[in-house]
Design goal:
- Strands 3-2-4-1-10-9-11-14 form an eight-stranded antiparallel sheet, with helices on one face.
- It folds into three domains: 2-246, Glutamine Phosphoribosylpyrophosphate, subunit 1, domain 1; 249-452, Rossmann fold (3-Layer(aba) Sandwich), CATH 3.40.50; 454-600, Glucose-6-phosphate isomerase like protein, domain 1 (Rossmann fold), CATH 3.40.50.
- The model has no long low-confidence stretch (mean pLDDT 95).
- It contains 18 helices and 26 strands.
- Strand 22, helix 16 and strand 23 (497-502) form a beta-alpha-beta unit.
- The protein is globular.
- The relative contact order is 0.09.
- With 612 residues, it is an alpha/beta fold.
- Helix 16 runs parallel beside helix 18.
- 36% of the residues lie in helices and 23% in strands.
- The chain binds fructose -6-phosphate.
Length: 612
């Protein structure tokens, strides 16, 4: 999604902004732009990569100031053109603005401003906000940039993170937020503002996030934080936990590959200090205070989108089977708008890597408004959802940069497993049963290493089917969501059409798709439904489909029915998705690379989807 970087200080802003934009490239974008104060405002925009913008700025010259704003755009209002790229400017008061989010009432504001004689040059909602600020700007009557931004924001509805500069106040940067993330990094005599900490961490680790309706006025001498109603507030400055190495490629070709291979260590971190083998208990500090309430919960609703939703689906099965708590999963986007029932004892768990997904955040607000206890299973520390939930558990798998989520998925499944044991042990599960699963959980990273060792073989299997345009992914029980995740991974980076579903569902319609040579990936690990999966495999074979099976080490029978077998070590069925998903991630990765796609910048996709 769109990214913002802004700088005020004593250093040249241009290289700093360009470097910041490059750090945000992973989020997905289609155009970029920047504006730098140097006498007046120098503005440049370009369709395509940040490097195109960089060349343009170099050729134009004059971008030499130490105050500037910059943006990567992921189109929402208006097509991908230079005119629609940010920054947007007004036509009266020397304003330039970059914006993430959507101004929902932009059409009516635009009509009003058009009646006042403003002429628009783009199709965007952001230009409307620039014009509105320009229209209201009146320093002679007390409406300096800060006051004007506050007034303008009171007139708009929707979501925004903005950074604004004005030619008449060449030493001021004003930033604000509602709904879209933004944070201020504090350096010595300088501030760097960004929508994502990865653009800040190279310069400072002291930072504070803006809360909704916060406005910050920054100058080289200091800053002032207020609400849009101009009430002063004190920000909570914290230490960014991000390490620079964590957001760099470190010798890998792609972030996705790096993150797939990081999974064993990521899970070791995720488990560290949380598995008390002696007591057979899971220790989750973030939930401790709510333990009595959680143990008595009557129903758990897990809400998420995309990959996080697939992890949540596994969570549902775990919670019902092991903790015996009625649970269900719902797309956050649906939950939010369908008048959901929240009763006494309902707990809502928002699962999100970024902690910024707009749909999931909206569902969380809905759940809280209706009186639910709201928990988060979040990766990004300090993100909006993590701050707005009552309690929660961090994944601790490190920043995920690859657009296709991999280590966050296994982290989410691992945390949901630990949350289940945390509750199960306090409800009906014996110390022995819990301890047994904890030992298995602890062994997952080492088993994952063994799956990753088969990378070259997995690549060679993928290569055989690389020209096929339609794939099916089938699984049962805990591995039905894994099948969905395998299909999602393949389609989002290789653009191959893939569907994932419960293996038994195939014969209720999708079986019509199977023709000679169609790749059908079965998750056929040795679990309670193994025999049933074998029958489904026969149904595919008899129609000419080519079966690729993810199976348990030692299973010889599977070799007689599958063209290709990808083995994973033996593991308790409820934990199996943590291993069975890994070959599917690698298959998707290799398919995309073999087809010549940029794995880390898949078309049309954004890392963090901050619009509903
Ligand atoms: C797929 C993917 C997306 C995200 C979804 C939710 O690889 O990354 O489907 O899982 O957009 O994102 P988070 O987890 O940040 O809420």
């Amino acid at each position: 999604m769109c990214g913002i970087v802004a700088y005020i200080g004593t250093k040249p802003a241009r290289p700093l902004l360009i470097e910041g934009l490059k750090r945000l490239e992973y989020r997905g974008y289609d155009s970029a732009g920047l504006a730098i104060m140097n006498g007046g405002l120098h503005c440049a925009r370009a369709v395509g990569r940040v490097s195109v913008l960089e060349n343009k700025v170099d050729q134009l010259g004059g971008f030499d100031g130490s105050l500037g704003i910059a943006h990567t755009r992921w189109a929402t209002h208006g097509s991908v053109t230079e005119a629609n790229a940010h920054p947007h400017r007004d036509d009266k008061s020397g304003i330039a603005i970059v914006h993430n989010g959507i101004i929902e009432n932009y059409a009516s504001v635009r009509t009003l401003l058009t009646e006042k004689g403003h002429r628009f040059t783009s199709e965007t909602d952001t230009e409307v906000l620039a014009m509105l600020i320009g229209e209201l700007y009146d320093p002679a009557n007390g409406f300096d940039l800060e006051r004007t931004v506050q007034s303008a924001l009171r007139e708009v509805t929707g979501a925004y993170a903005i950074a604004v500069v004005c030619e008449h106040e060449p030493d001021t940067l004003v930033v604000a937020r509602k709904g879209s993330p933004l944070m201020v990094g504090i350096g010595s005599g300088e501030y760097i503002v960004a929508s994502d900490p990865s653009a800040i961490v190279a310069h400072t680790t002291q930072a504070f996030p803006l809360d909704d309706y916060n406005v910050v006025k920054l100058s080289r001498d200091g800053f002032r934080t207020s609400t849009v109603d101009n009430l002063p507030i004190t920000p909570k400055v914290t230490q960014l936990e991000l390490e620079l190495e964590e957001i760099e490629l470190g010798g890998y070709e792609h972030y996705m590959r790096k993150e797939i291979f990081e999974q064993p260590n990521a899970l070791r971190n995720c488990f560290r200090g949380r598995l008390d083998h002696k007591e057979g208990k899971v220790v989750l500090g973030g939930l401790q205070a709510y333990a009595p309430q959680l143990v008595r919960s009557r129903r758990i609703i897990l809400t998420a989108q995309g990959t996080a939703l697939h992890a949540a689906m596994i969570g549902e099965y775990l919670l019902e089977e092991l903790a015996k708590i009625p649970s269900e999963v719902e797309y956050a986007s649906e939950f939010r708008y369908r008048n959901p029932i929240i009763e006494d004892g309902t707990v809502v768990v928002a699962v999100s890597q970024s902690g910024e997904t707009a749909d999931t955040l909206a569902a969380l607000h809905e759940a809280k408004d209706r009186g639910a206890l709201a928990l988060g299973v979040i990766n990004a520390v300090g993100s909006t959802i993590s701050r707005e939930t009552h309690a929660g558990v961090y994944l601790r798998v490190g920043p995920e940069i690859g657009v296709a989520s991999t280590k966050a998925f296994t982290g989410q499944v691992a945390v949901l497993t630990m949350m289940t044991l945390f509750l199960a042990r306090r409800r009906f599960m014996s110390t022995e049963a819990s301890a047994r699963l904890m030992i298995e959980l602890d062994a997952i990273p080492e088993k994952m290493d063994r799956v990753l060792e088969q990378d070259a073989f997995i690549k060679s299997v993928t290569e055989k089917y690389i020209h096929r345009e339609n794939w099916l992914f089938l699984g049962r029980g805990y591995n039905y969501p894994t099948a969905m995740e395998g299909a999602l991974k393949l389609k989002e980076i290789s653009y191959i059409h893939a569907e994932g579903m419960p293996a038994a569902e195939m014969k209720h319609g999708p079986i019509a798709l199977i023709d000679e040579g169609m790749p059908v990936v079965f998750i056929a690990n040795k679990g309670p439904q193994y025999d049933k999966v074998m029958s489904n495999i026969e149904e595919v074979r008899s129609r000419g489909g080519h079966v690729i099976a993810v199976a348990t080490e030692g299973d010889q029978a599977i070799k007689h029915v599958a063209e290709d077998v990808l083995y994973v070590p033996e593991v308790a069925d409820p934990l199996s998705p943590l291993l069975t998903v890994v070959p599917l991630q690698l298959m998707a990765y290799h398919a995309a690379v073999l087809r010549g796609h940029d794995v880390d910048k898949p078309r049309n996709l954004a890392k963090s989807v901050t619009v509903e």
